[in-house]
Design a protein that fits this description.
It is a single chain. About 45% of the residues lie in helices and about 0% in strands. The protein is mainly alpha-helical. The mean pLDDT is about 85. The longest helix has 24 residues. The structure holds heme C.
């Protein structure tokens, strides 16, 4: 008998072939990725950008406030500034900042402290924080925030 494939077997093999391709594509999709978590990336930036020279992680104030518990303090609006205002005045009561901008989230506050740190100076600290304007992009900021949340 001549070995001739019926049309349905050819079709079956074609479909089976497609399934094989699909399966191998999936294997690639679930392969472990080497990308670090946002918090890990933030930790690396905190180091490489020199933040830790001025901000400790153990609660002791250095040139700047310790980052230990910073996120909770910010969420609790427990941060006070020179001049007597608190984070809540700007974040919840909608007071305009001296720079005429407005804060709508703790993330905004972190951005402000990184880009224009003289606008709000944390009570008890000198206005010596450097500006990182143009040196941290949105991805860096997200990573830093993810890291600060862990401290
Ligand atoms: C040369 C010292 C110095 C460096 C470097 C520095 N900061 Fe600061 N930072 C300060 C000082 C001083 C303050 C408090 C005065 C103020 O509010 O401007 C401050 C305030 C802050 C605050 C507000 C803290 C609070 O309790 O409300 C955050 C958040 C912050 N810095 C994050 C960073 C991050 C992230 C980096 C690195 C990308 C960084 N700082 C680098 C000195 C520094």
């Amino acid at each position: 008998m001549p070995a001739r494939r019926p049309w349905w077997l050819a079709a079956y093999l074609a479909i089976a072939g497609c399934d094989d391709l699909g399966a191998s594509a999936q294997v690639n999709d679930v392969a472990p990725s080497a990308a670090p978590s946002p918090a890990d990336a933030g930790k690396a930036i905190f180091k490489s950008a020199g933040c830790e020279a001025c901000h400790s992680k153990d609660g002791s104030p250095l040139v700047g406030p310790s980052m230990k518990g910073f996120w909770k303090r910010a969420q609790d609006r427990a941060i006070e500034f020179e001049g007597g205002k608190t984070l809540g005045d700007y974040l919840d009561k909608g007071e305009a900042l001296p720079s005429a901008a407005k804060l709508t989230s703790v993330e905004d506050y972190v951005t402000l402290q990184l880009e224009t740190p003289r606008v709000l100076v944390v009570k008890g600290f000198a206005p010596t924080a450097p500006s990182y304007e143009g040196r941290v992009n949105e991805g860096d900021l997200e990573a830093l925030v993810a890291y600060l949340k862990t401290l």
